[in-house]
Write a structure and sequence with these properties.
The protein has 3 domains: about 15-80, no CATH class; about 85-185, 2-Layer Sandwich (GMP Synthetase, Chain A, domain 3), CATH 3.30.300; about 190-295, Rieske Iron-sulfur Protein (3-layer Sandwich). The chain has helices spanning about 5-10, 10-25, 30-55, 60-70, 70-80, 85-105, 135-150, 170-180; strands spanning about 105-115, 120-125, 155-160, 185-190, 200-205, 210-215, 220-225, 240, 250, 260, 280, 285, 290-295. The strands form 4 sheets. The chain has a 4-stranded antiparallel beta sheet with strand order 5-6-7-11, with no helix packed on it. The chain is built from 8 helices and 13 strands. The protein is an alpha+beta fold. Helix 2 (about 10-25) packs antiparallel against helix 3 (about 30-55), helix 6 packs antiparallel against helix 7 and helix 7 packs across helix 8 (about 170-180).
């Protein structure tokens, strides 16, 4: 059996917290002792890492190799031993995701990084991103947010100045408002997406909700399983090519409405209203696993 990969170790904090919570069942004394034990081990490894970094002070190339390793860098950040300031770490993190941004026709620049009493505030500028596709804009913004918060956990706020969308396009802000709730982005691993074939549509259960996923080449597009016109399930929907258009459309098997899969699920029918679009869910590869960002749907309990 091989050694655990980075994704396994990145979730070590969650497993430690679960064990600490479980220790509470034995009473407050047991919980306190468990926390002290974890603290002693953490301090020990911190002291060792500090000595290692001191020994490497005369070897800048080795220091760069250490800081370029995401797992090592995360431990250095925990112990306050990372040699680079927030701006440098943010710039390096964005360099790693720029190829992905470029594949969507976009880029991002750091306008400012300002320290404040509640943490660092970062201002960014998107350029040419998303090619007027709001679902891509949301995915790109979340990609950048993920990279920055991993490299600089002291960042408290991220302000993104996005390119102005073209007239008639669904505003990206309206989609982002559905993703950012309670101050965080709820991500859900969905490795089963990789099993979809090109041009295939499939339904999946995620956090108690059904989502509809479409694969086009190496791109995945995921939506809530609800038709924007008839409000019914899209189960059984398939992709079609319309005459004169290279982009595939999704046809509701019940009301027969047509939706643009690539561009935020906008309804393509002549009598469609501006808000007749599917609800897209951003898709990213996080820790090597395809994942989607999805807030829980509002509870309907007690609603007649």
């Amino acid at each position: 059996m091989g050694a655990p990969d980075d994704a396994y170790w990145r979730t070590a904090g969650d497993r430690i917290q679960t064990l600490l919570d479980a220790s509470s069942a034995a009473g407050p004394v047991a919980r306190e002792r468990a926390e002290l034990l974890v603290g002693e081990i953490t301090d020990l490894y911190g002291a060792v890492l500090q000595r290692i970094m001191q020994r490497l002070s005369g070897s800048p190339e080795l220091v760069e190799q250490f800081t370029a390793d995401d797992l090592i860098a995360s431990l250095l950040l925990v112990h306050g031993l990372h040699p680079h300031d927030a701006r440098r770490r943010i710039e390096d993190a964005l360099d790693k995701v720029r190829p992905y941004l470029g594949s969507h026709g976009g880029d991002v620049a750091v306008l400012s990084v300002a320290e404040g009493p509640d943490g660092a505030a970062v201002r960014l500028q998107f350029s040419g991103s998303c090619k007027s596709c709001p679902s891509s804009a949301v995915t790109l913004e979340l990609t950048v947010e993920d990279a920055i918060r991993t490299a600089a956990p002291e960042v408290s706020t991220i302000e993104v100045l996005a390119a102005e969308p073209k007239t008639g396009v669904i505003p990206a802000d309206s989609l982002l408002s559905r993703i950012h709730r309670d101050g965080h982005t709820p991500w859900h691993p969905l490795p089963e997406l990789a099993d979809l074939n090109d041009a295939e549509v499939g339904g999946f259960q995620v956090a108690g909700s059904t989502v509809l996923a479409c694969r086009l080449g190496d791109n995945w597009f995921v939506y809530r399983d609800r038709c924007a016109r008839c409000k019914d399930s899209l189960a059984g929907a398939a992709l079609h090519r319309r005459i004169g258009s290279a982009d595939p459309v999704l046809r509701c098997p019940r009301c027969h409405s047509h939706f643009d899969v690539v561009h935020a699920g906008a309804c393509l029918d002549e009598n469609a209203a501006a808000d007749d679009h599917l609800e897209p869910l951003p898709v990213l590869v996080r820790d090597g696993v395809l994942s989607i960002a999805m807030a829980p749907e509002p509870s309907t309990a007690g609603v007649p």
